[in-house]
Amino acid sequence: MKVNQKDSDKIFWDPMKNVGGVGGNNSQNKSLPKLMIWLILFVSATYVVYTIKLLTTSRSCEDDIFRHHGTKMPILVDKNVINGTLGSYSGRNRSLSEGEMSRIEKKTGLEHIVFGIAASSKLWSKRKSYIKLWWKPELKMRGIVWLDSKVKNYPNEKGLLPELRISEDTSKFSYKNKQGHRSAIRISRIVSETLRLGMENVRWFVMGDDDTVFVTDNLVRVLNKYDHNQYYYIGSSSESHLQNIYFSYGMAYGGGGFAISYPLAKALVKMQDRCIQRYPVLYGSDDRMQACMAELGVPLTREVGFHQYDVYGNLFGLLAAHPVAPLVTLHHLDVVEPIFPNATRVEALQRLTIPIKLDSAGLMQQSICYDKDKSWTVSVSWGFAIQVFRGVLSPREVEMPSRTFLNWYRRADYTAYAFNTRPVMRNICQKPFVFYMTKAKMNHSLEETVSHYTRHRVPHPVCKWKMADPAEVDLVEVHKKPDPHLWDRSPRRSCCRIMSSTKKKIVVDVGHCREGEVSEITSQ
Ligand SMILES: *[C@@H]1O[C@H](CO)[C@@H](O)[C@H](O)[C@H]1NC(C)=O
Ligand SMILES: *[C@@H]1O[C@H](CO)[C@@H](O)[C@H](O)[C@H]1NC(C)=O
Ligand SMILES: *[C@@H]1O[C@H](CO)[C@@H](O)[C@H](O)[C@H]1NC(C)=O
Ligand SMILES: *[C@@H]1O[C@H](CO)[C@@H](O)[C@H](O)[C@H]1NC(C)=O
After folding, report:
1. Higher pLDDT, residue 76 or 385
2. Of 77, 106, 253, 366, which alpha carbon lies 20 to 30 A from 328's?
3. Membrane-spanning regions, if any (predicted)?
């Protein structure tokens, strides 16, 4: 029996009806071969219908999951991945969306970042010492210092600094701000100029000034939270509320540093020169950048570890009560006092590189505990300083930065900041006894860091409280296991515990809080 295409289609699409209908028209006495043919047809029809059904369902399933993810890419055959998150797909030959690809791609490392440092030739001889503190070409760092004009090159600095380049001429752009300087245009274009160099395997462009110090491991930790295949503009605001009002709360302050994902930089480079021409009255480079980001419709993703530090005086209050977030940058280091006393600015930052090497994730992370016997409050800012207060101060008080600094208009004004602050002391007895980190090392047998903090000897007001005097303590020793995965967990302050407390020395253990552990006075 011959079945033409049309008939077969019919049969295939509605096998029960057709077969049944045909079967009903045939008498039981029809020949066996004819029956056999019908049987074969029935079986193959069922097979085809089943196949089509399978195809259409897998098709619609793909539609549901992947319609919004753009182009598909061939499967990445990685045994770890197949055993892990994609285990259920291991038996099938399928394609992955870009989103999925990026999640299982190698994590972002320093080698995927290109730094663009804004520098001026006038200040270069001084400012380059800040860059040398964090620049590590042996860690595959890539970056360029963009200058306004040529500077002297010293052969002995080769490898200690990023490549130096002179920015393109920007005299054709108009600049109409009376207070600012037209170098803002040059600096704003650094991302575009760096992108045009055509470096490969770039995921992020990170901008900073010549007086910005990066904690690069923490920068990598922060960037790893975001998909570099998407548009991201990551940075932070100013500490100064007024600055944020004059400029914008939606602006990444340039000196604090900010990151732009590769595809966003590509979108920016196409329009930035036109965009810059539309804002000749803006003051700086970072507000020009923000104006273009606003045209692109990309908001600021705030990461509070980028620090513009628009303050004067002593950063102590801010560094002793850092937010529960990785510290990424420090800025305006020429403006504020050296972060450790009795040291130059560069020496002080040099000292900070010791805890950065030991446990960058924990740098400046605060923990608060109580010396029960002596009724003291102890606040640790790991790798930086310790404060000991007479009496019990609650964590909600101690986690507020104390106002050891002045605002950007050089006034001590508590309404000046975009966050809560507290006075250095509310009672003369509670002026903190400060211990600054003097040394730190790794105890390899215990796999923990041991850091020493010695007392900063300054006069204290006379206190009549009848309790032990912290002035007798010379040294605080802190034990802490490095915790490189600290920021893979939800943000939480570490816990500290007083291990021993003698007249002259306090030993503190800092680490991940145990089940049920709280910053409170407990009966052991
Ligand atoms: C994947 O799982 C199989 C079976 O569970 C195991 O034998 C194999 O070692 C795993 N491979 C990897 C790379 O984990
Ligand atoms: C799986 O896909 C690849 C690439 O598209 C193709 O070359 C290969 O033949 C496919 N394998 C099977 C079993 O279909
Ligand atoms: C300051 O530093 C110098 C040299 O580093 C040292 O000799 C001196 O004792 C220090 N002074 C204080 C008060 O720590
Ligand atoms: C490490 O700690 C142990 C126990 O406290 C101590 O005996 C040892 O000397 C320490 N090692 C170093 C290098 O400090």
Report:
1. 385
2. 106
3. 35-52
* Residue 25 CB–ligand 2 contact under 6 Å: no
Residue tagged 């950063």 (tokens): 315
Q: Please list, in sequence order, all residues whose beta carbon lies within 8 angstroms of the beta carbon of residue 252, skipping any fewer than 6 positions away.
A: 233, 234, 235, 236, 237, 258, 286, 289, 290, 300, 306
Residue 29: band (very low, low, confident or very high) from pLDDT cuts 50, 70, 90: low
Which pLDDT score, from 0 to 100, does residue 140 have? 86
| Cβ-contact 477, 452 below 8 angstroms | yes
Indicate if ligand 4 lies below 6 Å from the C-beta of 65. Answer: no
CA distances from 183 to 149, 186, 246, 284, 333 (A): 11, 5, 20, 8, 21
Instruction: Give 496-499's long-range contacts (Cβ < 8 A, gap of 24+).
Output: 496/367, 496/368, 496/369, 496/378, 496/380, 497/369, 498/369, 498/370, 498/371, 498/372, 498/378
Q: Give the DSSP letter of residue 167.
A: P
| CA nearest to 104, candidates 76, 83, 132, 65 | 76
Cα of 414 vs centre of ligand 1, distance in Å, is 59
- Cα(477) to centroid of ligand 3, in Å? 20
| Sheet strands (E) in 138-272 | 142-147, 163-166, 204-209, 213-214, 233-235, 258-261
The string of pLDDT tens digits covering residues 286-298 is 999 999 999 999 9
Statement: residue 70 has pLDDT above 80: no
**Start-to-end CA span in the chain (Å):** 93
What's the CA gap between 153 and 222, in Å, rounded? Answer: 34
Instruction: List Cβ neighbours of 24 (8 Å cut-off, separation of 6 or more).
Output: none
Q: How far apart are the C-alpha atoms of 347 and 344, rounded to whole Å?
A: 5
Distance from C-alpha of 275 to C-alpha of 379, rounded to nearest angstrom:
48
Distances (CA, A) of 222 to 212, 317, 324, 510: 17, 24, 13, 23
Q: Is the pTM of this model over 0.90?
A: no
Tell me how far apart the alpha carbons of residues 234 and 253 are, in angstroms, rounded to a whole number. 10
Residue among 168, 198, 175 at smallest CA distance from 265 = 198
Which range has the worst mean pLDDT, 33-42, 301-310, 401-410?
Answer: 33-42
Q: Which residues contact residue 154 at a Cβ distance below 8 angstroms, ignoring those fewer than 6 apart?
A: none
Q: Is the CB of 446 under 6 A from ligand 4?
A: yes
CA–CA dist 278, 255 (Å, integer): 23
Specify the pLDDT at position 371. 96
- Decide whether any atom of ligand 4 lies within 6 Å of the 499 Cβ: no
Give the pair of three-digit tokens for residue 279.
């804002």
> How many Cβ atoms are within 10 Å of 120's Cβ, its own excluded?
18
Q: Tell the residue number behind the tokens 């904690």, with chain if given.
A: 215
Ligand 1, residues 83, 86, 89, 104: which to mutate, most atoms within 8 A of Cβ? 83
Q: Is the CB of 93 under 6 A from ligand 2?
A: yes
Q: In this structure, are residues 190 and 272 in contact, taking their beta carbons and an 8 Å threshold?
A: no
Delineate the domains of the chain, giving CATH numbers in brackets. Answer: 74-104 (no CATH), 110-308 (3.90.550.50), 356-511 (2.70.130.10)
